[in-house]
Amino acid sequence: MGDKVKIRSTTVIAVKKDGKVAMAGDGQVTLGDTVCKGNARKVRKIYDGKILTGFAGSVADAFTLLDRFEEKIKGVNGDLTRAAVELAKAWRTDRTLQKLEAMLLVADSSKILLISGDGNVIEPENDVIAIGSGGNYAYSAALAYLDGSSYTAKEIAEKSLRIAGNICIYTNQNVTVEEL
After folding, report:
1. Catalytic annotation, residues
2. How much is the pLDDT for 2?
3. Which of 22, 115, 127, 137 has a CB 3.0–4.6 Å from the CB of 154, allowing a cystine?
């Protein structure tokens, strides 16, 4: 009775290669041990199509953070790093935001950032980063593709996410990919 049903879902990956940035997310939402939706859209463009965003975690929490990030990005005229730091500071200090359980990936044409609730804003070392249940699987696949293939950023993001979907039970093959 006291057990809380945990909502699990999502793998989102961002890849930068040859001047292009791509972000891909799967469509699965899981409630407990049941897939309750298979076509969720967790990756989208904002700021007149100049910024990619992707989220993992509680949907309501993620949309709250996404809305806050969109406010921040408009307030700093599209400066991705500044908006990410401002959101991370607010997330860390605002009592309401502190309870949110989600992570955001954001990217513009030059960089990818991970924003987390513990105040971190991380730019990946290897031009790839992934979050969510299947994030480590997608990340590993993307590193291999970056090192040993001629695939584009978009192809790497999609192929890596599909590999994660074959391994992680919380990730499916319904992939959304956006590119800058």
Report:
1. 10
2. 41
3. 22
Give me Rg for the CA atoms of the chain. 16
CA atoms of 9 and 4, how far apart (whole Å): 16
* Residue 154 CB coordination number (10 Å): 18
CA proximity to 43, closest of 96, 109, 107, 120:
107
Give burial (CB, 10 Å; 0-12/13-18/19+) of 45. middle
* pLDDT mean over 58-69: 83
| Residues 94, 59: Cα–Cα separation, whole Å | 19
Q: Please work out, in degrees rounded to the nearest 5, the angle formed at the alpha carbon of residue 21 by the alpha carbons of 157 and 42.
A: 60
The answer to whether residues 130 and 107 touch, using CB atoms and an 8 Å cutoff, is no
Please give the pLDDT value at position 101.
Answer: 72
Q: Let me know: does 56 contact 135? Beta carbons within 8 Å.
A: yes
Distance separating alpha carbons of residues 147 and 174, to the nearest angstrom = 26
Mind listing the pLDDT tens digit for each residue in 93-108?
777 766 767 789 999 9
pLDDT bin (cut points 50, 70, 90) of residue 144 is very high
What was the pLDDT predicted at 6? 46
Report the chain's mean pLDDT, rounded to a whole number: 89
